Amino acid sequence: MRKVTSYLVTFLLANIITIAAIAQNVTINGNVKNSSTNEGSGAVSVIVKGEDIGTFTDDKGNFRITVKKLPVTLLISSVGYELQEVTVSDASKTVEVSFKPTNILGQEVVVAANRVPQKIMESPVTIERISAANIRNSPVASYYDVVTTIKGVDVTTSSLTFKTPTTRGFNSSGNTRFNQLVDGMDNQAPGLNFSVGAIIGLSELDVDNIELLSGASSALYGAGGMNGTLLMTSKNPFKYQGLSFLIKEGLMHTGSTSQREPSAYHNWNMRWGKKVSEKFAFKINAELLQAKDWQGRDYRNYQRAATGGSVKAGTRATDPNYDGINVYGDETTAEIRSAVLNSIAVQAPWLRNFIDTLNGGAPINVSRTGYTEKEVTNPNTVNFKLAGSLHYKVTPHTEAILAAYWGTGSTVYTGSERYSLKDFKMGQYKLEVNNRYWSLRAYTTQENAGESYNTTVATRLFNESWAPSGGATGWFSRYSQTYLGGRLNGLTNDAAHSLARSTVDVGRPAAGSAQFIKAYDSIRKKPIKDGGALLLDKSDLYSAEGTYNWSHLTGKWVDLLLGASYKQYVLNSEGTLFADSTGRIKISEYGAYLQASRQIMDRVNITVSGRYDKNENFKGRITPRATALVKLKENVNFRVSYQTAYRFPSNQQQFINLAVGSNVRLIGGDKSFRSFFNFGGNPIYDYDALRQGNIVAFTPQDLKPESLSSFEAGLKGLLMQGKLLIDVYGYYGTYKDFLGRKVTVQKIGGGTIALSDTLNGYRYSIPVNSTDKVKTYGFGLGIDYRLPLNFTIGANVASDILKDVPSNFVAYFNAPKYKANASFGNSGFGPGKRLGFNVAYRYQGAFLYQGDFATGNLPVVQTLDAQISLKLPKANKSIIKLGAQNLLNQYYYNAIGNSQIGGLYYLSFGYNIY
Amino acid sequence: MNMKYITNRIKIHFLLIVSAMVVLTSCNKDLEQFPVAPVVQGTTPTIATLLDGADLTIFKAAVTRAGLMPTLAAPTLRHTLFAPTDAAMTASGLSLAVVNAIPLTSLVPLVQYHIVPQTITTSSIPSTFPNFSYPTIFNPAPPLSALLRLNTFPSTRNGNWVNNIPMTATNITAVNGVMHKLALVTAPPSRYVWDRINTDADLTLFKAVIQRGDQGSTPATNLQGIMGNIGANLTVFAPSNLAIKQLIFVLSGGLVPIASPDAVFIGFINSSLPAASAKGIAFYHVMGVRAFSNNFPTTATSYNTLLNSAIPTHPGVRLVCTFTGPGVSAASVKGAANATASNIAINPTPDPGGTSDQHFLNSTLHKIDQVLLPQ
Description:
The structure holds two protein chains of two kinds. By secondary structure, chain A is mainly β. Chain A is built from 15 helices and 53 strands. Chain A has a 22-stranded antiparallel barrel. A six-stranded mixed β-sheet of chain A has the order 37-38-44-43-39-40. A five-stranded mixed β-sheet of chain A has the order 10-15-16-13-14. Chain A is elongated, with a radius of gyration of 30 Å. Chain A starts with a helix and ends with a strand. Chain B is 31% helix and 18% strand. In chain B, the strands form four sheets. Chain B has a six-stranded mixed β-sheet with strand order 2-1-8-7-6-5. A four-stranded mixed β-sheet of chain B has the order 10-9-16-15. Chain B has a four-stranded antiparallel β-sheet with strand order 11-12-13-14, with no helix packed on it. Chain B is elongated, with a radius of gyration of 32 Å. The interface between A and B is large, with 50 and 46 residues.
């Protein structure tokens, strides 16, 4: 092994030294200007034709390149501009280039589809790309929201800054089937198991592009990419230089249906990229966002069940057991006849029959009085991101990068409950070396949940703090006695409940009062293990990976790409989230992949990939992929692929140990739980079956990775002289060993299980693999058309359908049958082509949303976003933009219990935006 | 096609597209709500207004004088009123003049005992043996407990009854409850069953048997204690002195003549009747439910007694009653070892004058003419 390593190092050094040996001695200075605005064009590629030399213009459009001799021909190119060739024979004069914007589609280059650069038109799988220009022209306030305009994308919005996209179904807040990579790093929080999206990651000014691979993508990117992979790439300071800033000031919560008083939205961005020399560059980014968050205000009554709850009729006034979706603390419930009244009947037998007939003999379930999300959640959402990187070119083709990304914020996330992520912090730090043939990357993700807490648990505990539920003088006992007294005095059932609640809630701290804040804070700041609600998650991820592209050696026969990766998760929640009270839990994964592609018959390109991954807790897994691209004619390509994907059970599915609001304990699938909770000595039973009166023993099985096999075919065509771009796809996928959860029940103290144990017993939610195969299929169609005068119009529609779902199987598919986007805009028109606008419409069909927190029907959602912009003359690419996200302020929600989103109106000023 | 034409066309398309987007978007639905059925509820009649009936004038006067009319008029409360008709009031000795004359301390409990704090239609009253127990709004001892209530015992066995009083009209609905008319007044009890046994000159030997059986046990657990406990709910078949004398005559082999003074029999009980036997006999004369004679089956049927708490498999006693017209004309209880049934002396005159359906705070009592023999 040591010998192999030695050879490898020698080989890599040879690459570096050989390339570094190139001599240079004539320097050309030049400037590239936009022919329309006469402003310098930054980040324009300047390459010496026929040679391996190139550079980029700075933010003023200036460039400087050194060549061996004159004359040379420079190729000036950038997406959105016509390629220009300029012959330089005299280096003493500044080369002036008038760069002409063009309006032709399909010019973009993507990397994600095959991990090597290729034209988007020639991608063998469905891929979408968002450029910095797309973000600049978009009406939405956050670049991350631009993803929602891509065809086939579903988004679950937990709050203003917490959004979770996916494709082809199975979305949720904190989706674990959709990978998100930032500059090659998985930005999933290692402990909380959700990708943090835009909370930690790139600031808007630093986004170079976003690529979205729809559907299965594990063959190239490893475990987790069941439903897609989102790759966000930042701007390289060698290419994007100068100081930029972007200030957005906005207004939220307007109109008669608003959740609170109108409030401001602040979003400030800064980026400074500097190429110090041809060898060294650096950048610094910062972004601050502050606003009053959207809130969950679904106060409908909820029938909480261990699996698959539902919205039901009733309010706090009409249902004594009311459990509002976004009302917390009311999850604490008791059946007062059995808990209290029957004891009274023993002491006062003359009331026996009376008690028996109360409520028609039916159970008398009563819940504690809760507090709304608005009352227990700090509305202030803050997100601060700070990132920087140092770039050093060891040779012209070997760049070393030392980068740090750090972010902190407060937001709201929906898991099995609503969580307030308060002062959440996450940092990613990486060292990367990229050569044109190979790359090495090592990074770590350091997570700190800060003062994050479970709002449900915190509020329930808060209720216990001011009035304990149990005991002879507890809340339920006093409630029951008052209720009974009311009934004995002739009160109606509702009136007696009302009297009882108002009587026992005397002294209930008012939300926002000093007493409330003091008590609530003491609970939310106390770790779960100590009887509080605080999550102490400080889990980390360590990762190393490398790739080598052998194509320069094997290209005559086949293009060959080889890669390997290693990951280690270190779970550390001090017993507040995982079963790690006795020490940290380490989980290692490693994998390797190989990809080979070959052009055959001039019109067909075949690519075959395979990846092997091994998690120390699971058997190894091979995921193959095969793609074919058939060139039907110039810029019209047909693609077909077979892809596989899988995911290991998440860290939480393996090791979580968390009591949640519906009196259920979420536990992991690791074997250690079985002995810890004595499943061998005191067996567990199927909860749902027991509720139906059937006693069905449940034996936990070892978990297996979930997998997906997917066939896809598509066509991408550029027609009408490059003005019309059409992309259409269809897919069919089969999920196997689908990972879900099963609720079980165990009798306290052992013995024969009984129906009453569904209420009184221990309930465990255990991850299981479904034995059934679940199938999905769907299609997408997107059309973009360039009208005259730089006007553009686009529309897309997509459909995702789930089939063969077994009865009683909760799939959490969470995708509408149809969704569509349409947009109309112009990035430059009017005098000096300085005006711009964009109007975007989004439609999402109705569907049944299934979530651990709440399940219910989502109505159709339609939103309209719009912006108008003005590029200021002679102000170095300064733009003023007036934008509106959800222009018509039509509140909507895309998951039951999640925040309801209204209109956001903003005015932004950007300097040096490109 | 010139540029101006194109520009105009684009403007038109722009307006059309944006207009279409606005129209399409302006209809996001709010949270899907469950429809709430409108509650249509009138304000009359209330139970209070039902008392305006021509045959209820005396009871209405009683309710009014007792200050309970607002309770029966309140639309937010729910009650069931068992209303004795004028004929019933009169038959019970409660003429209008009497109602207006008796002290409120007697009148208020009397009226309260006819009011149950929930809506009970006859369809919700079971017909199972013996009856159903509903608390009235009468609390005989508020200082003891705010939840203390004196119960009434409706039944739909053999007709519609409250205790041993038949309903003459049922289910007269009001917006705040229901009213049933009664053939007689149901007087609230004021004594424990032990008080009757302890003071009735015809039950001295039964009292002696009970006390003989209780020897060695604490008042909290012995039968005398139970019979004096407000929490008990019993039916006592009380053998007359003659009945016990007849038994002792047999048990003594004729050595204790029936004509002997009561003291002789008491002496026999305390000296010659084993305490365990006395206890067994006493417990065998008590059921753990409260049964009025009209609750008995019309076909002899076995029911448990307190003896079954010690001997679960014991067949208990067999009860039967006979109706003549609306009322019980005959009723009997038969012990397992008795050759014939013991007859209940039918006389439902309220305690202390009667011998059947004697109603107490914690029991009913029926005098019988033969000791029940468990074995």
